[in-house]
Amino acid sequence: MDKNMRRMRSQDVNPCIEESDGSQKCLDANNYDKTMCSAYFLRYKNCRKYWHNIMLNRRRDGVKPDMPTAEERQEILAAIGGKPY
């Protein structure tokens, strides 16, 4: 696995690994028929949008790192009662 792939598989860098894996598994199970996996794609898109907004707010407020660590994200999700996407 090259350096960029390892980086994208890191929980601290990519908060939507679970949603990405779900989309890929759906495609594999449905012979790459994208129409069968639209719910998975939407969930991934909403996940990316949610964490991107969090990252922008943290950057605007001067919080480092811009993307919360995996532990911080778990705390954020627990505080709001689960995934909002």
UniProtKB/TrEMBL annotation:
One GO biological process term: mitochondrial respiratory chain complex assembly
UniProt keyword list: Disulfide bond, Mitochondrion
Subcellular location, record wording: Mitochondrion intermembrane space
InterPro entries, per the entry: COX23 (IPR051040), Cys_alpha_HP_mot_SF (IPR009069)
Matches recorded under SUPFAM superfamilies: Cysteine alpha-hairpin motif
GO CC term, one of those recorded: mitochondrial intermembrane space
Residue numbers spanned by region Disordered: 1-21
PROSITE patterns per record: CHCH
PANTHER family according to UniProt: COILED-COIL-HELIX-COILED-COIL-HELIX DOMAIN-CONTAINING PROTEIN 7 (PTHR46811:SF1)
Family that this chain belongs to: Belongs to the CHCHD7 family.
Protein name, UniProt field: Coiled-coil-helix-coiled-coil-helix domain-containing protein 7
Taxonomic lineage of the native organism: Eukaryota, Metazoa, Chordata, Craniata, Vertebrata
Name of encoding gene: CHCH7
